[in-house]
Structures are given as C-alpha cells and as structure tokens.
Amino acid sequence: MRAPTASPDLYASLSDDVVASGSETISVPTPSTGETLHELPRSSADDVHDAFARAKLAQLAWARAGFAERRRVLLRAHDLILERRDMLLDLIQLESGKTRGQAFEEIFEAVSVTRYNALAARKVLHGRPVRSGLPTVATSRVQFRPKGVVGVITPWNFALSLAAMDVVPALAAGCGVVQKADDQGALSILALRRAFIDAGVPAALWAVVAGPAAEVGEALTDVADYVCFTGSTATGRKIGEKAGRRLIGSSLELGGKNALLVLDDVDPATAAANTAHAAFSAMGQLCVSIERIYVHQKVAGPFQLALVERLRAAKLGSGLGFGADFGSLASAAQLARVQAHLDDAVAKGAVVLVGGKHRPDIGPWFFEPTVLTGVTPDMLVYAEETFGAIASLYLIGSDEEGVLAANSSEYGLNAAVFTASPGRARRVADALEAGSVNINEGYRGSFASVAAPMGGVKQSGLGRRNGEAGLLRFVEPVTISSVTGLLQLPRTAQEYEQKAPLLVLLAQALKVLRLR
Ligand code: NAD
C-alpha cells in the first residue's frame, strides 16, 4: 500500500481553519483501524455567531463583485479540486472507510456542481424584464437578491460532495456560508474549502464550524438567513419546524428506503452486477442506495444466483488505491445499527441469501454486503432505513405489483427500474413515487445530472438541490415596477367606472393575442 498524500501535518493545518476559539477537541477515528485519525477543534455557539457576523461582511462585497468575478473564482476552484484529487481521495477514504472508486464519485460530483453553478448562475439569476399586466401603463423587472448568509448542515456519509452541492450554488448566487460539518468528514470539507479559498473565495465567506448538534447546529439554525440540511428525516423535521417559526426558507434532503424493480426481460447477470453496485456502493451508506429489490419471478432464479456469486467474489478492503470493490462501514454506531437490523430480521424468520457477517479480520467495522429474503412487515429492515450493508429481495409477478410495492414506503427519494424495454421503463418510471428514477442504473444517472433538480417526495424531503431550483433557493426575487405615465390608473369611484370597460377590453385582447 502506498503512503497517503495526506499527513498529520495536513490534518492539523486544515483543522486550524475551523472557527473555534476554545482549546477543546473531538477525536475522530479512521474506519480502517478504528484508531484516532486526528483531533477536530470544537466550536461553541459564540463561535457560530462570530462566523456569521464575519461571513455577513464578506458576503456584501462578494454579492457586489458580480457574476463574472464569481464565475472566474469558481472555475479556478474547479481546476484546483482536480489538481488536488489524490490528496482529496486519500482524505475521503481515511475519514469514511469507503473505496477509492466511491471516493472518486464524490470528487467527480463536486467538480460537476462547481462547473454547473459557475456557468449557470448568471443565466438563471440575472435581473430581467417581465411583461406587465398593464402594457404601456407600467413596466416591470424582476431582480434576484442573494439571501445573505446560508447555514449548511451536512452528514458524515458523502461529506465532500454534499457540501459542494449546497455551498457552491450559494456562493455562485452571491451568498456567504457557515457550514456545520459532521465530526466525521470535516477534514474532507476543509480540504475542499481550501481549494475555493486558494482560488479567491474570501476565507470569511465560507466558514466551517464543528461540534455537538445541540449547541453548534442549533446556534446555526437560530441565525441563518436560509438553511440547507442533509441528514435524517427526524432531524430534518426539527429543522424545518424551526425554519418555519423563523419564517426563513430551508431545503431538506432526507432519508430513503429506495426500491429497485428488476423486470422479466433483463439479462440476469448484468442486472445482478448493477444491483450489487446500486445497493452496496459506499456500503449502502448513501441516501440514494437501493435497500429494496423487487425481482420478477420469471428471472428471480438466475438473478439471485448471479447476485450471490457477484457479492461472494467481491473484494472488501481499506487500502488507499483502487484495490477493493467494497469498503468499511463508517463507524461503530453504523455497525451496531446494521447488526441490530440483521439480528431482528433473522430472529423473525428472514433468510440470509449472501453476506450477513461482521468482518473484524479486515477492519473493526467491516461488514459483508448482505441480501435477505423472506422479509416481512414486522421486521425493522422492512420499512425503516438501514443505511448500510443490507438489502432485501422480494418477488413480484408483474410490473404493476412491483410499482405498488415500491410505492408502499413512506419515503420517496430514489428508485430504479431494470428492463430491456424503453417503453416499459418509461411507464414504470412515471408511476414510481420518488424524486429521481434511474433506468438500468441504481442512482448515478440522476446523481450526476447536476443540471436537474435532486430531492425527495413524501418523507424524503422538501425543496430541491442542483439545477436551476438549486440556485433559486439562495435568492429573494424582487419585482420592481414603474408606471409609464401614458395612462392614468383609476383612483376614484368615477375613474373606476370610466376605465373598467377599457380594462375589460384589455384583458380580452391580451387573451386573444396569447400574451400572458
Ligand atoms: P443526522 O440527521 O443525525 O445528522 C445530520 C447532520 O445534522 C449532522 O451534522 C448532525 O450533527 C446535524 N444535526 C443533528 N441534529 C441537529 C439539530 N437539532 N440542529 C442542527 N443540526 C443537527 O443524520 P446522519 O445519521 O448523520 O446521516 C444519515 C442520514 O442522512 C440518512 O437518513 C440518510 O438517508 C440521510 N442523507 C440524505 C441525503 C439526501 O440527499 N437526501 C444525503 C445523505 C444522507
């Protein structure tokens, strides 16, 4: 195994960028051994307030700098991320326990959203004239004003790419950011941020704080002008309630129990290979991972055989290179959750088709990719998000049965359908209740489509990141109207009586001319 490009000196230098005035630190372990990777400074509520005050000052200048300057800086950051990719890949792997391939997906996503937002911001957010309902009497323009300083809260699982998906459009729109990083993943975020600072983003404009949610997270949502939250549905609901009370906006990217339909016209080996990746990339610790597999009974036999064979042959490992197919679970808490879901299911009669074992021989939190059959509604794994290492396989007799089963979840984040027929794929995709549907892939088609909105329906969230919707979150549209003076609008009863017939004629003419 080659030596990492990341080193304790780098961890210490990155940690210095956390806004934290005290000397208290949090020990953050690395999943490959469970030993301490680095000491993360702990911020206080006062540090959060200071970070906001400084970000506000920086934001005023950043907003005035204009689209062209922001685009220049963000495109430079794009190039720096690519130049520094080996170091970033090492950090992601060391912090999360995921494989090089899955870490690479994070980097690729981060540069994609950076490029998209740098290039799209002006087109989406520039001020523009809109047609007045009173042509010749008044003219109107819409301006999009940055909301101010955004609070961004991210989880541990895809720390770098999820940070980019919220922070970069906020910066492109002219906002500042105070980000509460999860303890695990903070180094990757700080290294990503460094690329943006070196590219020309003012250091105070994107502040990172760390520490307990009850103090640091709460302080952040108390003062932010808008909140972007990515995490569990339970926490998202609390943050949405608080944002509602403060009458600020929020985007809530929450949990999922994502379903995959394998129809009866697939090649079973290809479908099984794609299913293995869709369910167990990042060891299933990805919001859009597949946890429910609905297979048509006509192909279930060969599909199951191919899936078992594929997962048995897969290599688990933690090296800093492209040497392993699957990595580690991220923490002791994740291992405990996966083990609890498995034990509960097996105790109630589920059968382990493949996997099912903790693998301390590889690393403390390694767990085999596990597929269960015979899962019933009384088991935790049936409807609750496991968020790691376990997928359940069910048989279906028709496309309709599969759609009904997939839609029976309270979640609606991502779904997938595998079929050789484009027509069937479209019909099933149209009927699935999810914020994204992937055809013949688990999640990467939609995840990589950074120009398209990403988010959940039902209990999987509110609001959208990515695409135009992802940028529009960060601005207040303001309408500025001016009367031309060519015609006096009515003010008195008599003037209304005189001009009402004219306004009726105007409404009729506008409809005939198809003018909105
Ligand atoms: P979590 O809700 O426990 O924590 C997420 C973040 O919120 C952490 O940084 C945490 O410290 C912070 N937090 C917790 N309570 C808070 C509070 N009251 N105020 C402010 N901040 C608070 O989630 P988790 O277990 O870390 O992450 C896993 C969950 O995230 C899964 O449910 C997964 O599906 C979801 N997720 C969703 C997406 C998406 O895009 N929809 C992406 C990744 C993960």
Secondary structure topology:
Layout: H1 8-15, E1 25-29, E2 36-41, H2 45-83, H3 85-96, H4 100-125, E3 128-130, E4 138-146, E5 149-153, H5 159-172, E6 176-181, H6 186-199, E7 206-210, H7 213-223, E8 226-230, H8 233-246, E9 249-253, E10 258-262, H9 268-280, E11 290-296, H10 297-313, H11 332-347, E12 351-354, E13 370-373, H12 380-383, E14 390-396, H13 399-406, E15 411-412, E16 414-418, H14 422-431, E17 436-439, H15 444-447, E18 457-458, E19 461-462, H16 467-472, E20 475-483, H17 493-512
Parallel strand pairs: 5-6, 5-8, 6-7, 8-9, 10-11, 10-16, 11-14, 13-14, 16-17
Antiparallel strand pairs: 1-2, 3-4, 4-20, 9-19, 12-13, 15-18
GO molecular function: succinate-semialdehyde dehydrogenase (NAD+) activity
Active site: 253
InterPro entries: Ald_DH/histidinol_DH, Ald_DH_C, Ald_DH_CS_GLU, Ald_DH_N, Aldehyde_DH_dom, Aldehyde_DH_Superfamily
State the separation between the terminal residues, measured CA to CA: 65 Å
The CATH architecture category of the largest domain equals 3-Layer(aba) Sandwich
Uncertain runs are: none
Strand content: 15-25%
Family: Belongs to the aldehyde dehydrogenase family.
Pfam families: Aldedh
Biased composition (Polar residues): 22-35
Active site: 253
